[in-house]
Automatic annotation (TrEMBL):
InterPro entries: NCS1, Pur-cyt_permease, Uracil/uridine/allantoin_perm. CDD domains: SLC-NCS1sbd_YbbW-like. The chain crosses the membrane at residues 28-47, 59-80, 117-137, 149-171, 183-200, 229-248, 269-296, 308-328, 349-367, 373-399, 420-440, 460-479. This is NCS1 family nucleobase:cation symporter-1. It comes from the Bacteria. It is found in: Membrane. It is a multi-pass membrane protein. Belongs to the purine-cytosine permease (2.A.39) family.
Length: 494
């Protein structure tokens, strides 16, 4: 069925074309394994553990994480429906609402965020190889820092080695990533139990670690401040998966049925994320008992294990980081870059571009400047991605009632070309939804440069993703009311 859409090479290539029946091989357990694989990652672990540092009790932290992932599951399932029904990736679905040219804007935004994450995760992976090599030789590798780079030669080589490991999967395509996720998911669950057993034996039980009171109770260090911590934390947690909520059609287009993608995602996202949060909370609390301080970084923690345990833990963390990075941060931008110039850029070439940007951006320098602003970064880009999600959902469900003319998505003179390929309703809705969050973002990211931002804007920014989704949905829905039916009647025959 693909070949009917190949007339316009500026909008079509084999990778962007709808999936065929033969390509739809993913069952519910593949989606569940995909999410278990993506959830069990170092940034998710450290983000969960950091809630304790913000003052939450173990139970409050776990419930916050579970709630955030239950919330973000809804747009995952809603947007994922189009991928399964029509076999199209996110970059093509966005054409229905933003226009055949305008869709490049949300595709590029999603791609840039993913490139940032891809580079950061590659750096984490390189650091694990660096730590592992240090354990094997009996001392830290060390060495003089390279001028201009700010890291030593051993760190650079380890970073490039991990980059090269991932490059194998770019060469071998989507099916190799599915297999990697399916086979490594049980391994990750096993290592979680091993970590729990280790903490239980070293810290003398885990139940008491979850029972530590929060700092928000009367007389506590942050008495009465729970909600001021809870809402930004919830928004940051939603923001953590906001990227995947947009490009989930890149995966669901390979689903055998809608039931497979719905059940697989519903099982695979909220529950494992809640369990990972519980693990992070218990292990972090256990590290205080064992080492006298909270250790948030699982790589640091693994390096403190003794004997074969340290080697096993670091190798599993390495496998984990490869599988997460490929699924969460490579597939999306590879399709997105391909959609910018389909004739010149295939899915593989899009993957090469992502991998190249990961080196050029020098992620260790990005971490130096943004590590303290992890919540600012997560909430900040959720303010951009939330409006796109709102527009896609309203367009697909309320404007088009889940009915798309797939052939028209690949034509620059069809229903979805609007005015010169741009749908102004989507652009206006996007801008209006982003604007209220800008003052709060500037204050959060650069407090000394923007100290006088009104409290109202700071409060709005606390709910950035939610505000963006709501405003964009209402504005776009109002501007597009009745237009879809009118457009379909005027559409050229395809």
């Amino acid at each position: 069925m693909n070949h009917d859409y190949s007339g316009n090479t500026q909008l079509w290539n084999e990778d962007l074309a709808p999936t065929t029946a033969a390509q739809r091989t993913w069952r519910w357990y593949h989606f569940a394994a995909l999410w278990v694989g993506m959830v069990m990652c170092i940034p998710a672990y450290t983000l969960s553990a950091s809630l304790i540092d913000s003052g939450m009790s173990g139970y409050q932290a776990v419930l916050t994480v579970f709630l955030a992932n239950a919330i973000v599951l809804l747009p995952m399932l809603l947007i994922g429906h189009a991928g399964t029904k029509y076999g199209i990736p996110y970059a093509v679905l966005a054409r229905a609402s933003f226009g055949t040219m305008g869709a490049r804007l949300p595709a590029l935004m999603r791609a840039i965020v993913a490139c940032g994450w891809y580079g950061i995760q590659t750096w984490f992976g390189g650091q694990m190889i660096y730590t592992l090599m240090g354990v094997l030789v009996g001392h830290e590798l060390g060495g003089e820092k390279i001028a201009g780079l700010g890291i030593n030669g051993s760190q650079l080589l380890c970073f490039l080695a991990f980059w090269a490991i991932q490059f194998y999967y770019i060469l071998h395509g989507m099916e190799s990533i599915r297999k990697l996720e399916t086979y490594t998911a049980p391994l990750k669950i096993l290592i979680c139990f091993v970590l729990l057993y280790w903490v239980h034996s070293k810290a003398g039980g885990v139940a008491s670690l979850l029972d530590q009171p929060s700092q928000f109770i009367p007389g506590g260090k942050k008495a009465g401040q729970f909600w001021s911590v809870f809402w930004p934390s919830l928004t940051a947690m939603v923001g953590f998966w906001a990227t995947l909520a947009l490009n989930i059609p890149d995966f669901t287009r390979f689903a055998k049925t809608q039931r497979d993608q719905v059940i697989g995602q519903s099982i695979g996202l909220p529950v494992p994320m809640g369990l990972l949060a519980m693990l992070a909370v218990i292990v972090t609390a256990g590290s205080v008992v064992m080492y006298g301080k909270a250790i948030w970084d699982p790589v640091d923690l693994a390096s403190r294990m003794t004997g074969a345990a340290v080697l096993i833990a670091l190798i599993i963390l390495l496998i984990d980081t490869v599988s997460v990075n490929l699924a969460a941060n490579l597939v999306g931008p590879a399709y997105d870059f391909s959609s910018l110039a389909p004739k010149q850029i295939s899915y593989k070439m899009g993957g090469y571009i992502t991998a190249f940007i990961a080196i050029v951006m020098m992620p260790w320098k990005v971490l130096e400047s943004t590590q303290g602003y992890i919540f600012t970064w997560l909430i900040g880009y959720s303010a951009l991605l939330g409006p796109i999600a709102g527009i896609l959902i309203v367009d697909y469900y309320f404007v088009r009632k889940t009915q798309l003319d797939v052939k028209q998505l690949y034509r620059d003179d069809g229903v979805y070309s609007y005015g010169n390929g741009w749908n102004m309703a989507a652009l206006i809705a996007f801008v209006i939804a982003v604007l209220p969050n800008i003052p709060g973002f500037l204050n959060a990211a650069f407090p000394t440069a923007f100290p006088g931002v009104a409290e109202g804007f700071k409060t709005i920014y606390t709910y950035a993703w939610f505000v963006g989704v709501a405003i964009a949905a209402v504005v776009y829905g109002a501007m597009m009311k009745g237009k879809a039916a009118e457009k379909v009647q005027q559409a050229p025959q395809s």
